[in-house]
Amino acid sequence: MSLEGVAEHCYNITQSYLDLANQTSIVDETKEAIKLTRDYLLKDIFKRWDPFSGQISFSYNGGKDCQVLLIVYLSCLWEFFKESIRISQFSLKFQKFPLEYLPTVYIDQAETFQTLEDFIELTKNRYFLSLYESPRNQTSMPQAFRNYLDLNENTEAIVIGIRHTDPYGEKLKCIERTDSNWPDFIRLQPLLHWKLANVWSLLLYSGEELCGLYEYGFTSIGGVNTTRPNPFLKKGPGEDNGEAITNHFSWEISNAYGKAQEDSSVPVTRVSDADLDIIQKTDDSAYYPGWFLIEDSKERAGRS
Ligand code: ATP
């Protein structure tokens, strides 16, 4: 595989998702969300910043939001490449994909779950990321980005997987400059309009491996000392919190892209023993997987 190969694979995933007919209202809504993100990237962002020249970097921390955005971003990169050579006299097989690795930045700020660290390492290889990792805990987020920009002077814009329902996300726009207390760059935020259900739907349909913590009831992953499984997903007495806990994505899971036959398992990475100890030390209850939760307002209930 190569970046070109995985970009084409991501294109095939999103295209196949967009071609789905007569599924759930979540699928219909997610298709609209994908189309808008695709328009932002292809019709606006890639016209202003060349994704093949190092002007754009991708901020990545292994979370579900940046993973789903990465899939759509790579899909668009493939489409942009195909479009750019459409008028060429040579056919696709004689054209070289202009990037070998995707410029990516990860700020290793809080104490991170080992499982997430492992997932970042795995996906760095899976998606051909040229991953800058800031030294752990050494500095503030703005300073860490400043250090990254000092080392990567071509970078003008950074893709961020923030959504309107995230803290401080409500009023953001797809393209905007950083605030004055941050190093100067353009924030590219083409996932803002996605709901939690849209993220799970495409991610589970993609058949791509997810970070194993999500299977243990995590719905958003912060630091080791500040994140626990989401209390709204706890099994057992009082589990319903007023509503039945159900899996809204059985169809996506059973019909995931590239699956040979119906199979109800979700590909996830192994949770490290150390993380299992941490999770079970304070609470040994069982939890439904993170994708059983679709209410945006409850997504961060496991984070303090
Ligand atoms: P989850 O909420 O499930 O943990 P996530 O980490 O992708 O998923 P957020 O925590 O809401 O989502 O972060 C929003 C976005 O900000 C990420 O998708 C990523 O693009 C960027 N981001 C957040 N933290 C970091 C970090 N430490 N390094 C690089 N980028 C980051």
SSE diagram, text form:
Blueprint: H1 3-18, H2 25-48, E1 56-59, H3 64-85, E2 102-106, H4 114-126, E3 129-133, H5 141-151, E4 157-159, E5 175-177, E6 186-188, H6 196-206, H7 250-254, H8 273-282
Parallel strand pairs: 1-2, 1-4, 2-3, 4-6
Antiparallel strand pairs: 5-6
Helix pairs in contact: 1-3, 2-3, 2-6, 3-6
Residues 59-61, 63-66, 105-107, 109, 160-162, 166, 220-221 line the site of adenosine-5'-triphosphate (ATP).
Topology as a string of helices (H) and strands (E): HHEHEHEHEEEHHH
Binned strand content = 5-15%
Q: Strand sequence of the main sheet, in spatial order?
A: 3-2-1-4-6-5
CATH fourth-tier homologous superfamily of the largest domain: HUPs
In CATH terms, what is the architecture of the largest domain? 3-Layer(aba) Sandwich
Low-confidence stretches: none
Strand segment count: 6
Biggest β-sheet strands, sense, barrel: 6 strands, mixed
SS summary, helix count: 8
Radius of gyration: 19 Å
CATH fold-level label of the largest domain: Rossmann fold
Q: What class, by secondary structure content?
A: alpha/beta
Any ligands, ions or cofactors bound here, and which?
A: adenosine-5'-triphosphate
The CATH top-level class label of the largest domain = Alpha Beta
The dominant shape is globular
Tally of domains: 2
Residue-averaged pLDDT: 93
Distance between the termini: 39 Å
Helical residues, percent: 25-40%
Protein name: FAD synthase
Keywords: ATP-binding, FAD, Flavoprotein, FMN, Nucleotide-binding, Nucleotidyltransferase, Transferase
Catalytic activity: FMN + ATP + H(+) = FAD + diphosphate
Pathway: Cofactor biosynthesis; FAD biosynthesis; FAD from FMN: step 1/1
